[in-house]
Design goal:
The protein is of the alpha/beta class. The chain has 2 domains: about 5-165 and about 215-265, Aconitase, domain 3 (2-Layer Sandwich); about 335-470, Aconitase, domain 3 (2-Layer Sandwich). The chain is about 35% helix and about 15% strand. It is built from 16 helices and 19 strands. The protein has helices at about 5-15, 40-45, 80-95, 110-115, 145-155, 180-190, 205-210, 215-220, 235-245, 255-260, 315-325, 350-360, 380-385, 390-395, 445-455, 460-465; strands spanning about 15, 20-25, 30-35, 55-60, 95-100, 125, 140-145, 155-160, 165-170, 200-205, 230, 275-280, 285-290, 295-300, 340-345, 370-375, 400, 420-425, 440. The strands form 5 sheets. The chain has a 5-stranded parallel β-sheet with strand order 5-4-3-6-7, covered by helices on one side. A 5-stranded parallel β-sheet has the order 17-16-15-18-19. It has a 4-stranded parallel β-sheet with strand order 11-10-9-12. Strand 1 and strand 2 (about 20-25) form a beta hairpin. The longest helix is centred in the first third of the chain and has 16 residues, at about 80-95.
Length: about 475
Amino acid sequence: MKRNIFDKIWDEHVITERENGESLLYIDRHLIHDLHYRSFKSLKEKGLNIREPKKLFAVSDHSVPTTAKKLKDIPSGEMFDAVQGLQLAADEFKFHHFPMSDKRRGIVHVIGPEQGITLPGLTLVCGDSHTSTHGALGCIGFGIGSTEIEHVLATQTIWQRKPKIMKININGILDFGVGPKDVILSVIREISASGGNGYAIEFGGSVIDFMSMESRMTVCNMAIEAGARFGIIAPDRKTIDYCSNKPYAPKGYLLDEAIEYWKTLIPNDEAIYDSEYSISGEDIAPMVSWGNSPQWSVRIDEPIPEPKKEMNPVVRAEMEAALNYMDLTPGSFMSAVPIDMVFIGACTNSRIEDLRTVARVIKGYNSIVKTFVVPGSGLVKEQAEAEGLHKIFIKAGMEWREPGCSMCVALNGDVLNPGQRSASTSNRNFRGRQGVGSRTHLVSPAMAAVASITGYFKDVRKFNREYNCAEK
């Protein structure tokens, strides 16, 4: 059969179908974070219970201040209520919960793969749009809304309409200093922020094959920013090795059986796709977003585009509005733009490989702008400290913080002031994302590190070669 990986997993999970084309899917794993703690009260008010509490995993990440180590460190108010509310629900309903006292806690999209909650061939949902991250492990992961959360809690199922499938092949070799964040920003610029609407995106090609699992998570994390609800990558030997020793992965003969199944989750040679794109890795450079959408990005070595050259009047107006809000001039270069703050973290770039990259760039230099370095989980923090990375950050003048979503969502005290500009490794840059009146520029961890050192957006390729910082 000419089925792609998405088809294979979807078909395995269909319970029944409606005449209108919707499918009732069985859900293998359900992740939930603190912002949805009220879902449990709503469930009780309707006289319902959790259908399969052993398949529900919860953690507080959005509301947790990254200066807090325990619940009592959070000031009374909405943040405290959310974190405590999730804890109380876990105590009552007996589902898996990683409290603030647990070193395994962190950002939901970091701990899922880290703990083996996320595995190839599964369906996984979470009340967060960046659940597409989990597709990097060869599963169908997608974000759901509040009503859908309650439906999954009560039934372990969800009604969904199957998307069309888009294949994006990225072949060739990436230049020194170019990383997965640059790859996905280039993809989004190519197909636009709405190019993936109605699609699941399967990423492939030699560039993806060469990537580590953590790099693939960065790519799938931002599939939603291209308009696709799903991002997915076929599992390979790297995926199997990554998943096999995780705490919630199968053990013994069950693991052997799982691995045999995982090996079947590759697209058939003649797999059919509804749309395909090809991008050359050699054409990808370090990227910086200039507008209020990831699609408004440029290579660091090219100028900000001129809206007057855009033929579509709607798009032209959007570009003009974005430039006005961001206080940027068409034709100028991002390398001339000074920044006020650097944020290194979020579910996009807060894993150990990201922190190692930052440490390689920053070692021997001083940060000249305020910089937060926020690990994605307690285990990432522990590993970074075991490797001495935190000492490099602290010596450079950066702030080494506790795990959490931090400035990515600005719901937890980590915010920009009006008019301030950030170099951020997060995934969204709409108006006010990091604080009222804030201006967010999306970059890779390496580019963020250089911005911290120089106070500007500089080409990490030239920085490394000129200053030989990798050898320091």
